Amino acid sequence: MLTVALPKGALLKDSISLLQSVGLDFSAFLDSANRQLQIQDPTGKAQALLVRTHDVPVYVEYGQAQLGIAGYDVLREKKPQVAHLIDLGYGRCRMSVAVKASSPYRSAVELPTNSRVASKFVHCAREYFDSIDLPVEIVPLYGSVELGPITGMSEAIVDLVSTGRTLRENGLIEIEVLYESTARLIAHPLSYRLNTDNLSEIIEKIRSKTLATV
Amino acid sequence: MLTVALPKGALLKDSISLLQSVGLDFSAFLDSANRQLQIQDPTGKAQALLVRTHDVPVYVEYGQAQLGIAGYDVLREKKPQVAHLIDLGYGRCRMSVAVKASSPYRSAVELPTNSRVASKFVHCAREYFDSIDLPVEIVPLYGSVELGPITGMSEAIVDLVSTGRTLRENGLIEIEVLYESTARLIAHPLSYRLNTDNLSEIIEKIRSKTLATV
């Protein structure tokens, strides 16, 4: 049976709407009383897994899900062995460098050599600072990265920014954009090539819906 | 000023009670309306940071907090350069290997060679399977590890178990205990040796409270 890995959190609602528009109903995941992590579409054609956004590529890479929806940020950070199929357009945000508004730095290259940069996206941060040839120490954090500059632990952060509210509330400003991110449809490469469970049909339906809204 | 890093989640309530019993009041963190991640004790003697449990050792290692409270599981997984001071006794749980109840395996050594083991604690899992000389593939996940065996992605999981309810609800059983975990008081090594902010006094108070309740 076709299995789709869906991400908990910010991308879930739009992902479920998109799949509904192509005939797959996983709206039970939006019920706040739901505790199940694996549900079937009422027609019995497909099932979905509800997992952390960082885990979506894992389930797809191992072939436990033939399709998955994940942010480009996660794909760029983890570089999983999956087929990147469609830019779905929603979940738009950007990976940015931010510093305390009261700091003198207004671009990343102005940061002092050997600055500390806190991030949940350590590979993205490392790649970016390598690309501008600035040696920095990346401090890996799991959450609330904005505390890095507030407490003085780090000069800067690399983090996802959507509205910018969290930055403003914490007295931080964005000084550099690494890249823009949106939700992406990904597939298990072998399932995609072999067209298991008639994958290509559902992918084409999603593609036409996505083109219609862009 | 003395800064204490406190973990969000399961250990928070007991940690705040413990600090209250030695005269430091950070109960504002328990207010569900609270959005602040950094607050001062009303007496102005100390401040606390509210961070993810995995981030506590980071703030302590970098000296942004002189003291921190973290689970032994996190300390064992991350091996941070911090001073381990006191076993606080609460937050008791165990790091265990679990499999589907319907599987034939009743101990870790019975797992087939090259099994897949899903875990958020990849270093703990790797260390354990190396110690029993069983080659396995560790699949790193961020959450809902129980989906690994349910979906067939992995034969087993290594995860924290406290009541065992999540395992039972998902048809899994514990077949091996790696170690027991409790909350621990940790300190920034240099601050501890130099007795910055009169650290030893507060540590001794915490030690006597902990001994009184054990």
Describe this structure in words.
- The structure is a homodimer of 214-residue chains.
- Chain A has 8 helices and 11 strands.
- By secondary structure, chain A is an alpha/beta fold.
- Chain A folds into 2 domains: 2-91 and 182-213, Periplasmic binding protein-like II (D-Maltodextrin-Binding Protein, domain 2, 3-Layer(aba) Sandwich), CATH 3.40.190.10; 93-180, 3-Layer(aba) Sandwich (D-Maltodextrin-Binding Protein, domain 2).
- In chain A, strand 2 (38-40) and strand 3 (46-51) form a beta hairpin.
- The two termini of chain A are 30 Å apart.
- The mean pLDDT of chain A is 95.
- At the A-B interface, strand 3 and helix 5 of A face strand 3 and helix 5 of B.
- Chains A, B: It is an enzyme of class 2 (transferase).
- Chains A, B: Residues 52-207 form the ATP phosphoribosyltransferase catalytic domain.
- Chains A, B: Belongs to the ATP phosphoribosyltransferase family. Short subfamily.
- Chains A, B: It is found in: Cytoplasm.
